[in-house]
Amino acid sequence: MSTVKVAVHGLGNIGKAVIDCLLCTRDIDCLGVVRRASSLGTQPLSLRGVPDYASIDALMAERGRPDVVIICGPSRNVPVDARYYMEKNISTVDSFDIHSEIPQVVAALDSAAKAAGKACITAAGWDPGTDSVLRALFEAMTPVGTTFTNFGRGRSMGHSVAARAVSGVENACSITIPIGGGKHSRLVYVLPAAGASFADIKQRIAADPYFSNDPLDVREVGSQEELDAVADNSHGVLMERIGASGSVSNQRLSFDMRIDNPALTAQVLVSCARAVTRLNPGCHTLIDVPPVALLPGDRMKNIARLV
């Protein structure tokens, strides 16, 4: 069995979960974690014995070149980070989650990937990601119809990161609440930094593109303990489509899951780290990736087992 060599970029909630998934995966070897120099040596329980480095160059000097870097930083940093690693002759996978910007990111990274002769997979979580594949399959099954994707109730990693990045915020948690028909509201709990104005924070969050298109409720908490009481990792989705196959209407399709958000995002990223080594140069999303490429083992054996 050939082994894919992987490095992890970042040790936040997703990075920690990626390490857990990698340590449970037999055909992928985790060479190390790239993180801020000021953080080196901290969080030993999260590292699970995996070495950490202040740069990819330091990692390569000690462990060799990885085949893939799994990018676990904020979505807004992904285009720059992915381009940087591909210029180092390393493929990347990421869970970029700003839906409206995905076409532009794919176009930009496609040019960078082809220039470097590498493949990358972007927007590879569960939504965008595996849910995107299901939406595509639903449309293939019922070409005429309407699909509603209802998230939550649950904690959104991307929205929480965006809220924490707002000036004056010490920490924050964003909860997604489904209101039906594919629409959602956002409930954001904020722990302000010392001396920060909560009223100003509310205005900044409301103006952020992550939050500006949905009903929003921003609430102040007075301590980290209060925030911890609402910041669990649960999430989920209910996807429903009613449409027609040929001239036959009233075809009803549904998919429902309740999950730990970082764990599932991490597992998708790890499966994509395997798949990206099997793809041609360029930028791909999960609807571009053959499902069999995500799986360990021999293609024909997987066909015999699953088809």
Q: Could you give a short description of this structure?
A:
Its EC number is 1.4.1.16. With 307 residues, this protein is α/β, with parallel strands linked by helices.
Walk me through this protein's architecture.
35% of the residues lie in helices and 30% in strands. It is an alpha/beta fold and 307 residues long. It folds into 2 domains: 171 residues, Rossmann fold, CATH 3.40.50.720; 88 residues, Dihydrodipicolinate Reductase, domain 2 (2-Layer Sandwich), CATH 3.30.360. A 7-stranded parallel sheet has the order 3-2-1-4-5-6-14, sandwiched between helices. Strands 8-9-10-11 form a 4-stranded mixed sheet. The protein has a 3-stranded antiparallel sheet with strand order 7-12-13. Helix 5 links the parallel strand 5 and strand 6.
Layout of helices and strands, plus pairs?
Layout: E1 4-9, H1 13-23, E2 28-34, H2 44-47, E3 52-53, H3 56-63, E4 68-71, H4 78-87, E5 91-94, H5 102-116, E6 119-121, H6 130-141, E7 144-151, E8 154-155, H7 157-164, E9 169-180, E10 183-192, H8 198-207, E11 216-220, H9 224-228, E12 234-245, E13 248-260, H10 261-276, E14 282-284, H11 299-306
Parallel strand pairs: 1-2, 1-4, 2-3, 4-5, 5-6, 6-14, 10-11
Antiparallel strand pairs: 7-12, 8-9, 9-10, 12-13
Helix pairs in contact: 1-10, 4-5
Question: What labels would you give this structure?
Answer:
single chain, 307 residues, alpha/beta, Rossmann fold, Dihydrodipicolinate Reductase, domain 2, 2 domains, 7-stranded parallel β-sheet, 11 helices, 14 strands, globular, diaminopimelate biosynthesis, nucleotide binding, Meso-diaminopimelate D-dehydrogenase, nucleotide-binding, NADP
